[in-house]
Design brief:
Blueprint: E1 2-11, E2 23-28, E3 31-36, H1 38-51, E4 64-74, H2 77-82, H3 91-105, E5 114-125, E6 130-139, H4 144-148
Parallel strand pairs: 4-5
Antiparallel strand pairs: 1-6, 2-3, 4-6
Helix pairs in contact: 1-3
Length: about 150
């Protein structure tokens, strides 16, 4: 099987730093009740709005490959020398929010379909901040020898 490109998305935005793991909690009658914080809801809404124009005609039904670069803008020359961002938010939490949005919008039916994943979190100059997403579907490829017969 080989990946077939479905969507290549480049959003010239500073990626959101709020993640779904940043939940609020309030205790009601001695029981904790968790809720999504306002900042998280706003970040997800902005990202969802940016991705709407890229939604495929129909969701991928099989195995999915995703490649994502979260490129955060900074003016700090020291951070730019290191390039990779090693501070919060955690890369897996950033992706979980994005995967939920991609699934909700119909890029694929469920994030359990993701079988290959490449994630990066970088520092870049402010003017180069972006979120880059490539979504591919794994498809069967005919063997060249089979085609000749």
């Amino acid at each position: 099987m080989e990946p077939k490109l479905i969507k290549a998305i480049y959003l010239p935005i500073d990626p959101p730093t709020r993640t779904a793991q940043q939940k609020g909690v309030r205790v009601v009658h001695g029981h904790p009740h968790f809720f999504e914080k306002k900042e998280v809801s706003q970040a997800k809404a902005i990202l969802k709005d940016q991705l709407l124009k890229f939604v495929p005609d129909e969701p991928i039904k099989g195995a999915v490959r995703i490649d994502v670069t979260f490129a955060f803008g900074t003016k700090d020359k020291k951070k730019l020398r290191n390039e990779y961002r090693t501070s919060r938010p955690d890369l897996d939490n950033l992706f979980k929010s994005l995967a939920d949005i991609l699934s909700e919008l119909g890029f694929f039916n469920d994030d359990s379909q993701i079988s290959s994943l490449m994630l990066r979190k970088l520092w870049v100059p402010v003017e180069d901040a972006h979120l880059s997403i490539t979504v591919s579907e794994y498809v069967e490829v005919e063997d060249a020898a089979e085609k000749e017969t």
